Structure formats: C-alpha cells, structure tokens
Amino acid sequence: MKVLWIVNKPIGALHEKLFGKKSTGGLWMEAMLERSREDQSISIVIVNISFVREVQKYVFKNETYYTIPGVPNEKYDYKSQKAHRYWREIIKAEKPDLIELWGTEMPFSIPALEEAGNIPSVVYVQGILDSIGRYYQAGLTADELRKSYTFRDVITGDTIKKVQKRYLKRAVIEKQLVSMAKNIIVENQWAESYYMRMCHDVRVFRCPLSISEIFSSIEWSFEKMQPYTIMCSAANYPIKGLHMLLKALTIVKAYYPDVKLFIPGTPLRPVNSVKSWIKQSGYDKLIRLMISELGCAEVVSYTGRLTAEDMAKKMSEVNAFVMCSAIENHSSTLKEAMSVGVPCVASYVGGVPEYARNKENCLLYRFEDYEHLAMNLISLFRSQELCQKLSVQSRFDMKNSREQNDFYQISKDIYRAILNR
C-alpha cells in the first residue's frame, strides 16, 4: 500500500537533511514515520510546499519526499496550470493508492485532489479553521486590540482583526477540501460536530492523536520539581491565550512572589532600534507591554525552541503546566504534559474535556475567567496531595489511552477501510 501524505512543512528525513536535526513539530507524524520504516506493507510519499524554483525529490529508505514550488499560505494560486502540472507529474510517477491531507489549512492540496482522479483521499483534522477564525480575538478588549497595532502589521495586513478575517476566508477552502476528500479522521466528537454542519455526506473515522513515547518515559515527581513554577504551551498568537495567563499570573504573584512562568518558543525580540521597532508584530508588542505594565518582567522567561526530549524534561521540572488556549481541537501539548504527569490546568475548550476531567486528572476553567485560572494554580501550589492525585491519574489515563489506541495501526485500518470501499 502506497500512501501520499500532503504536509505543510518538511518533516522526517527531509527535515533532518535540510536542518541537521529532527523536527520539533508534528511529532505524531514523526512517530508514524518511524513505525512505517519497519513495515514492509506500506510505503509513504510526502509532499510539502516551499520557496523552491523547481520540484525537488529526496528518497530515504521506503519514504519519498517531494517539495513543490509555491508560497505555503493562503496566497497560493491553487488554480494555476503550474500547480496542477506539479501534482499531475507526482501522481503519475508515484501512483499512490491513497492520499492523506494532514490538516485543512493547505490550499495547495486542492489541485492535488483535482488531479487525483479516482484515487481516494482522507483528511486528518488538526486545527479547524472555522473555529480558529471564530475565536481568534481570544477575549482581547478593544483597548488591547488598539495597543497591538504596529507599523509592520498595518503595512502587511497582519493586524489581529485582519488575520481573523483571513482564517474565516480560509474556512471556505477548508470546507471545499473536506467535501472533495469525502473522508475525515477526527479525534473527538467536538471536531466531528463541526463537519456535520459543514459537509453532510462526509465519512468520519476516529483516531486519537499519537503522543511521542518520550513523554511517558520521563516522570514528574513532587520531590524533583521546582516549587511555584509554571510552564505553558507555545504562545505566539492570540488564540493560545498567553495574555489571559499573564493576567492570572499577577494574581498568583500576589500570593507567591517567587512564581516563575516558562514559555516555550522563540523569545520576544528586543525593540532597541528603528529596524526592530518596524519589524515587531502586534501580538508580540501587546505581550511585551503587558509583561511591563503588570510587573512580570522578572517572572516570565522564554525557553527557546525545544525538542520533544527537552520539552518533556522541562515539564518534569515545573510545579504546574497550563494550556490556556481560546480554542483547541485536541491539544497535543496538554496530552504530552499529562503523560509526563505534571499537574495540569486547562481551559475548557474544544475536544479537551473529552479526556481532561476536572479535579480528576486535570483542573479545568473557562477561558475568559483568568481569575479561576489563577485560583487553580494557587490550589496546586498549596496542596501536595492535589498535585500528586492529578499526576498519578493523568499518567495512568494517558498510558491507558496509548495501550488501547495504537495510532499507527488504527491509521492503517482506516486506510484499508477507505480502499476496500
């Protein structure tokens, strides 16, 4: 069985060839590729898009990688003759049995499906663009939106409001892709409900997201962690909710002055020149202002980009993990944290409540209620017993989920079901 994957950036062996290291994103795809290398019954062709002049090909074991020319965003001209020619030649050369789209945010997938003919296809739903567009402002007030305006964002059209409009516009393409594919893979009922509204005749399969085993191999303990420390998900745009966490942090800080927040990802660039002032994004500007105005400069620290191993290790060293998004489909980062066993606090959004149960394996709160988020963190800082209870139960639940749901095998079974039909 040959499966052609459509992805939005280099992964697997191609990523290692280009950058000399493993990818820090899409870890579920990386895990699936690892399994496929030992499986003679399947071969995988992976296509991504990038700023190249001509189609590039790279072969590693039973994996074949293609990079096609184009802009990897909504500006991609998916109606062009070149776009169709690239896909026509790849499909003719590889003759895949099945096409899988990893996400719905890629307009360059449209010519692929148009050129696929009778080859069946399926979409693995990651973020749902329609829901991201709906909640993109993430509780920001009118004053906060005003403060977020920057020269760069006005010139490039990347203000928060305009980006929100683009997500809603891309949701039209999302609906088109799913309608063309006719098959989707979701992890939860929440995601399925969106597509029941958008595409009535789509065939739905269930497959839980795969979490790298590194997160279950490193275990949190009360004795090894650093008290009054917090880690959150990467947070470089509004929907991830860092602005709400900072508001909660000021409340926590009043009770625990030594509190520290660690944020994965690239640190905020210093604004110390005209060039850096021009280049700053609106959300970065807002976060910088909030950190200063709320007196959190000594509290907040960015970790830089982390590998899976580094992420798991850092999670095991903090007192609490927070997933503070305005919307999430499944939040792989929260599942990773729960696998490590760090006590978790999460916003009650999307598909999260289908595995994160309040006061059993996680503490939940409504996204806008940052006061409740603060109270949950204070509760964890106050109670070793509560931390231990959440840690043990979350690790047990994640272990049980992994044992009952083999992501790789379920994916192959779905492939076969689609092909047999």
TrEMBL record:
It holds the Pfam family Glycos_transf_1. Residues 225-392 form the Glycosyl transferase family domain. It comes from the Bacteria. InterPro entries: Glyco_trans_1 (IPR001296). This is Glycosyltransferase family 4 protein.
